[in-house]
């Protein structure tokens, strides 16, 4: 954000917003009076409103990646010889190395170092997200798939193994941050855990797949062909390739972004690096499905199998989102003991935990599957990747549906916090001119401002530490 532009907007906001003289009790404040969207952390409160989003933008953000994946699959279906292994463009080098390096170099350039530094010491929050994402979810899905095998569910075994691999991947890099911000969640925490998760995923995800692989193959019904997904995982080789294609570009991008912050920001906009990253990811999907189509691997996958995976994915995402919400908010009709209050996270943090905990990344997952099964049948990778690609599309759709629900929940908690504090302190504040505040706020959003000044609040509230809401922890340093 341009600091000069922000200061000018802030002073303009201060001078033009008017508060009438008649005072009223805080208890008479109406719900429609919306204070700037708060993003509470465990130690402080910062005011960060999200700009107004048009209906077209919401639809675009929800379905854009879905359409992209469909286009990539159609290309693979019609022209499998172009991007298959050993094809015209030598995809095993140009895409499975080159495109992956580009994706994570751009990710490194996009991760904002200063924002990451602000949340790096929130160890308990980071630990909770990573334990849910890289331990609880893989363990639950692994157990569920074993149960399906024991029950002889009439589903393609490769797809079920693919479900476990999808669950073993880390959280996504960008979409969870965007959805967290749109839902008035703690964007900084989401950004930090996207970075942590993808670095940990380089080491944890191959280890999980290696541990799960043996029991899965043993449990596979004998008349199925899931043994194609067998074989020993060369852990050292996997770490070496993921380190070169993922970790090194990510670190290099961060170093460049840290040394040349302003220049990189301009280049990102001018060269539309986010679109370049999306195109690189699409070529990866195209290559994976080209291998599967060329080898005929989808011949054993029926429409019923795909529909079943879609339903399972939706159930898993909703269930894991609710699990994250329950563990973070610890819902109860009463405050509870002090130790319980300290374990609770604020509503803004809970939103970040929900999105980072339940989402999975294609950018890391597809390269991981490619590396793990590079010595096997190339078409196997396409079938194994299908559950992850479907989960990615579904988490975008369901996540964007959650945005409006969570945004109202966060704002309601903020208003309750303010009213509760006013009631406890016996504060009587002037009644704000709601229409004037809304007009000026809209002007600020339209001008490109992404943060509202604290002067939008009365001075005694703007400078005070407002305690978190009923689901938030009290102000203790963790």
Automatic annotation (TrEMBL):
This is SBF-like CPA transporter family-domain-containing protein. Residues 447-478 are annotated as: Disordered. GO terms for cellular component: plasma membrane. It comes from the Eukaryota. InterPro entries: Na+/solute_symporter_sf, Put_Na-Bile_cotransptr. Residues 447-466 have a biased composition (Polar residues). The chain crosses the membrane at residues 62-79, 94-113, 125-149, 155-178, 190-212, 242-261, 273-294, 306-330, 351-373. Keywords: Membrane, Transmembrane, Transmembrane helix. It comes from Absidia repens. Pfam families: SBF_like. Gene3D superfamilies: 1.20.1530.20.
